[in-house]
Amino acid sequence: MTRALTFLLMMLMSLAPALAAVRIKDVTSLRGARDSQLIGYGLVIGLQGTGDSLRNAPFTDQALQSMLDRMGLAMRGNSLRNKNVAAVIVTADLPLGMDAGQRLDVTVSSLGDSTSLMGGTLLLTQLAGPDGQARASAQGAVTVTGFDAAGQAESVSQGVPTAGRIPNGGIVEAPMEGPVDEMRMFLELRNPDYQTAMRILDAINAYASKAYHKPIAFERDSRSVELLRPANISTPRLMSQIGELMIDPDTAARVVVDSRTGTVVIGQDVQISTVAVTHGTLNVRITETPQASQPAPLSNGKTVVTPRTQVDVNETGGQVAIVAGSSLRALVAGLNRLGVKPSGVIAILQAIKSAGALQADLVVQ
Global pTM? Predict the structure, then answer.
């Protein structure tokens, strides 16, 4: 870990008491109040020779002929050689409460061997929900941020030119039905935890005792809190009121490491039993410097290449440090005393976990 990262961690820990409180609506969601995912198959036209090869993508050929048949053009049996058409998969999220006629954003992704969707236009595509019924339709110009250009000896690419978006390109045709407005509701925690659930319950009942003169929240498990809605208030108003209540969420002690990027995230409640840690790195460097041996003039000799190898061995590190993490600040300070890089920190944490001294869950991604 660098000094800048350590300084940032120290600053975040010093500000933790002031930043720990969050709103209930930021850590919970009402059961049944969720978005629905839509998907559809369509065609993008108007491409500048970057479309699908109809010979390699038969589904594009079939879809194109079916579209022409619906428009009254008999093209069955003809061999098409278009390069400005691409088959795509269109996806979108349908938020709960959207009525028919409202617009939503859609994402367009190439399905065949098209190299770019830039400049294309999506034809009218039906989007179906999980129940198989058409819920929305999409059409419009595709916005692509990436590009791909190639010549005979060099190519340049940036981003992903085979995927794009159509802002407000979808229109809701049949909205999803929301949950039934019942007296009994459930708040589901995004990060299940018993302590957090109890704090939510206490905050809601403290507010309800003043506003409704009776408790309305009841414990259920670590994932949800049960609510009994008063008869004289609607569900939207109740959720708007309790959603603004502040709580201090609790989290389990956990260490998350990503060996691919060298990222290490240590939770605040992580503790390490007292252990002695040493970390060293063995570096072996082999340098090849071959030399040519030239014969003397008029000697009828041959030029010979003489190999020359130099091997250097260097072992760094090896310091022994006592690491005892009674708090996050002490743990970071103990690891920094070893002077290792993030890859070394990951190896040390895995070894400490194997030794049984890491009092937390170790998640390796």
Answer: 0.65
